[in-house]
Every structure is written in C-alpha cells, then in structure tokens.
Amino acid sequence: MLRRVGGLLLACAIASGVTPAQAQSSSFLERRVIGTSVMGKPIEAVRLGTKGGVVVVVVGVIHGNEAAGLLITDKLQESVVPKGIDLWIVPTMNPDGTALDQRGNANQVDLNRNFPYNWAKMGKPGYWQFAGKSKASEPETKAIVAFMREIKPALGIWYHQDLNIISPGTGLEAKCAPPIRDSRAFRSSELRAVSTQALQPLGSGAV
Ligand SMILES: [Zn+2]
After folding, report:
1. Which domains does the chain have, with CATH numbers?
2. What spacing in Å lies between the alpha carbon of 160 and ligand 1's midpoint?
3. Which helix H or strand E contains 140, and what residues bound it?
4. How far is the CA of 23 from the centre of ligand 1 (A)?
C-alpha cells in the first residue's frame, strides 16, 4: 500500500512536469495544529517537500476504526518526496475516533458524511453513517474544510480500509487525477489487483 502511495505521488510529480530523476530527499517544512476534536485533541498536519509546489494532501484516518493509514502517514514522513511536491500529511482528522477505535467522532458522527458539500440528513447518533445534526456541525469537519480551503490541494488521498478499492474523486483534485489514471505508475503491477470496476467513483458506499 505504501508503494502505491509513492506511485501516486510520483505520478502527480510527472503530471506537474517533474521527472523521477529530480526526486530529492524530503525536507521538513512545518508542523501545525489545524483544529481540535470534540474531546479537545489536536488535529495535526505536517508539511514536507517543496514549498510552492504541487500541493498534495494525504489524510491517514477519517474513520477511527480504520487506522491502518497511520502506518502510511508515519512512513511518508520519513520518505523521499519528489521535488516539486508540496506535501501535507494529516495522520488523523478524527483523533477521538482513533483513540476510541470507533468509526465516528466523540459525537458518533461519521465525519465522511458531515462535509458541507451535498450534505444530507442521515440517521441519528448510534447509526454508523450518522451525518451529524447539520452540515459541518463537527469541529473536526470545520477544521479540515478550513485547512483544505487554505492549501487548495491539487490531489487529495484519503485512506480507508476497503480492500483493493481506489475511489477517484470528482472535485478539486481533477488537475492531477486524469494524468494519474493514464500514467505508467497507475498501470504498474502494484495496482493490477485493482479492478476496472473498483476504479469507478463510488456513491454513498462503505467508505
Ligand atoms: Zn472509511
């Protein structure tokens, strides 16, 4: 899975005109707290790479009981970032869910259903996809929305634990997404396990 992330970052670098030969050691730029959870835990972000480059953001965890992304965000912080990539890493945007090993935040809100875009009422506390009382009702959602509006990523990678599925988005990441789909990295053996069907955007599935 880590190699897959590297491939995606590399593909984004290629899309931005950066060749693999130009890849250099990652450089730490900054670490900051972008918000606070319901329980008062900090939501942290780490920035590596080339300031002013193509902005890529990787979010390791949004659903607290899908924490394997933390292994990736830990490794990414030690990895080589291709030159020209302005990489932001948010290990978890749901630190309460991560601590409690539960899908939602401390209010039992599914943060992936709480974003303001296309928000709709869904369930109530206790329902696994409870969307919250209103759009962006949760402090974690407000924090990550404000952060994304600030950094304006060309590519966002969000980790879940749905086996062998890559779910391309349809939003702001469009600048990088098409070249990635066509790139050699995306057709590499590491990704052959991903079915054509799995590459289609998902609706309101299990992610
Ligand atoms: Zn998930």
Report:
1. 2-198 (3.40.630.10)
2. 4
3. helix 139-151
4. 31
